[in-house]
Design goal:
Layout: E1 11-15, E2 20-23, H1 25-30, E3 35-38, H2 43-61, H3 67-75, H4 83-89, H5 145-158, E4 164-165, E5 177-178, E6 191-195, H6 199-205, H7 243-247, E7 252-259, E8 262-270, E9 287-290, H8 292-298, E10 304-307, H9 320-323, H10 328-332, E11 339-340, H11 343-353, E12 362-373, E13 378-390, H12 400-429, H13 436-458, H14 466-490, H15 494-498, E14 500-504, E15 507-511, H16 513-527, H17 529-532, H18 553-556
Antiparallel strand pairs: 1-2, 1-3, 4-5, 6-12, 7-8, 9-10, 9-11, 12-13, 14-15
Helix pairs in contact: 2-5, 12-13, 12-14, 12-16, 13-14, 14-16
Length: 564
């Protein structure tokens, strides 16, 4: 049997017409100008497949060596002309079912008992132990060769940890078991890709030149290395040798079992381990955070760990990790930065700085991530989001607009915090100490601010005044949050309007809806001072304070001690 990935359709794509199609490797590169993006079964599958395509392209063009060569590729409508001959040269290594060198697999892999396992082990939308929200319940019985190929690539990138069945020939096996060695490489990352208007642009935007992120002379993808055996490779001390090696890292050893109708089983175990600490010089598709815990554990500094994505936070709320690569305070003190932005963002910033990409050019930054649960043995959540922005916001030389975008996120955070405090104050006025209303109000505020912030960010262009931009955003945020505050107050209930005596750091205060409203508006003014000073951002009071409940405004804004 044979399933040649270079000529058989297996890559799902969305065309620029909006239609979807299934293409071979050869067709994807040939038709890249007419493809909008990859459209895999999961967002993380898109990430893993993109890295596969980039490894092919890096190896086919043997570089690019520098930005001059990259610029020629960017302008050349036939930039992928070397790919067909390249795929022909290594065609046997792209055969999913090859008897000796199956693609991304280990021929002859088997357990001592000869057991073959369910395909649930590689299909990430059927988490072990929690398959109730999938049409594949209770197990994946069979996959087409095309879908199986996609899940093989995904498993090499995102497979779970946990105890796996040991295979014959792996010296790491103890008592027939392979003990946990962590999730597959991409599962550690808060994945980041740059997207253009077509797949051709997206691949080129992520094709980092060798003079920007050099690799070793031994850098080559998995299909140009000896077929992996059941154990870990014996040259790992000098690897990964570069991006081609890293993008095709064989985190697992696996072998599909198939018949003429498709794939019906798999053998899966651990492959080549790869430590996550201080890999920022080789892995460009994630942000990095300095870890004091790892520094203490390893006895050295600095130690950087991949910055994972929080599924509860939209991508724009983490914009600081993309736009501001260095902490000015730590730089002045000569200390290592507390965080580093993804290398791919630095690469785009360089293209903009050298005027290869115009400053007004807009790109989409797409994020990917997997959240693991139960000792990393299952995938609990898949995260993905997109932020559209002008490349000038990524500039290292002129950070005013980029800093404005980051500051606007902080403005939103402070306004949302004020709304959450209002909800909590109203709950206290009604006799409850529960914080559930606070979190509900915050979630509603972030949801309401999401679209307006993205539109505001995408509209930033060269020549815009940072102060005017931020004032406009604060006015928008104030209107949205104030409107939500009105809703929260109006549904507070009669008990909250009547109020009650509550304790505070300054004594006891008669807290009711009127006073909670006044406190909120004071906090909102402090959170969004530019909007408070603007007539366009003025917020009418929900209800004028009465002398019975609040006295003067000044008195209402300060907790009052009550003597009984």
């Amino acid at each position: 049997m044979s399933f040649d990935l270079t000529s058989r359709p297996w890559l799902p794509v969305q065309l620029i017409t909006g239609e979807e199609d299934l293409l071979s490797l050869r067709e994807v590169f040939a038709r890249a100008d007419g493809i909008r993006r990859l459209a895999g079964d999961l967002p993380t599958q898109d990430f893993a497949l993109s890295r596969l395509l980039l490894a092919i392209l890096h190896d086919a063009v043997d570089g690019p060596q520098d930005t001059d060569v990259w610029a020629e590729l960017w302008e050349n409508r036939d930039a992928f002309a070397d790919v067909p001959d390249y795929l022909d040269r290594y065609r046997d290594r792209f055969d999913l079912l090859h008897p000796h060198t199956p693609f991304f697999q280990s021929a002859g892999l088997h357990t001592a008992s000869g057991e073959v396992f369910s395909l649930n082990r590689i299909v990430a939308d059927v988490p072990n132990g929690d398959p109730f929200f999938t049409t594949r319940f209770p197990r994946v019985q069979r996959l087409s060769f095309a879908e199986a190929a996609r899940w093989v690539v995904h498993a090499q990138a995102y497979d779970t940890s946990g105890i796996k069945t040991g295979v014959v020939g792996d010296p790491r096996v103890k008592g027939g078991k392979a003990y946990p060695q962590g999730v597959a490489w991409a599962g550690n990352l808060g994945g980041v890709l740059a997207e253009g208007t077509t797949l051709r642009e997206s691949l080129l935007l992520n094709l980092i030149a060798a003079d920007h992120q050099p690799g070793e002379a031994t850098d080559r993808p998995a299909w140009r290395r000896p077929p992996p055996g059941p154990g870990a490779a014996d040259d790992l001390a000098a690897r990964p040798a570069g991006l081609r090696d890293l993008y095709t890292w064989q985190s697992r050893r696996m072998l599909l079992h198939a018949d003429a109708s498709g794939v019906h089983g798999v053998v899966l175990t651990y492959g080549d381990p790869l430590a996550v600490q201080n890999m920022q010089h080789i892995e460009p598709m994630t942000g990095w955070r300095r870890s004091q815990a790892q520094e203490k554990k390893l006895g050295k500094q600095p130690v950087y760990m991949p910055r994972e994505h929080d599924p509860a936070r939209a991508a724009w709320r983490g914009l600081e990790a993309l736009i501001t690569p260095r902490d000015p305070d730590t730089a002045r003190r000569g200390e290592p930065a507390s965080g580093l932005r993804p290398g791919i963002v630095d690469w785009i910033a360089r293209l903009q700085a050298e005027r290869i990409l115009p400053r007004g050019r807009h790109i989409r930054v797409r994020t990917f991530g997997a959240v693991y649960g139960t000792q990393q043995s299952v995938i609990d959540e898949i995260t993905s989001d997109t932020v559209s922005l002008a490349v000038l916001l990524l500039s290292d030389t002129d950070r005013a607009l980029g800093q404005t975008a980051v500051d606007a996120v902080a403005d939103a955070d402070r306004a949302v915090l004020a709304l959450g405090d209002l909800a909590f104050d109203l709950a206290r006025a009604a006799g409850s100490e529960s914080e559930s209303g606070k979190q509900t109000a915050r979630d509603a505020a972030y949801a309401a601010l999401d679209g307006p912030y993205r539109l505001w960010l995408d509209a930033i262009g060269e020549g815009d005044d940072p102060q005017q931009l931020r004032t406009a955003w604060q006015c928008t945020a104030r209107r949205i949050v104030a409107r939500l505050a009105d809703d929260v107050i109006n549904t507070a209930g009669e008990t909250a309007w009547q109020g009650r005596l509550v304790s505070s750091a300054k004594g006891q205060t008669w807290l009711n809806a009127d006073l909670a409203d006044l406190w909120f508006r004071s906090r909102l003014n402090k959170a969004l001072p530019l909007a408070a000073d603007s007539a366009a951002g003025a917020v009418p009071a929900q209800k004028a304070p009465t002398s019975d409940t609040a006295g003067s405004l000044d008195a209402a804004l300060s907790p009052q001690k009550v003597t009984t």
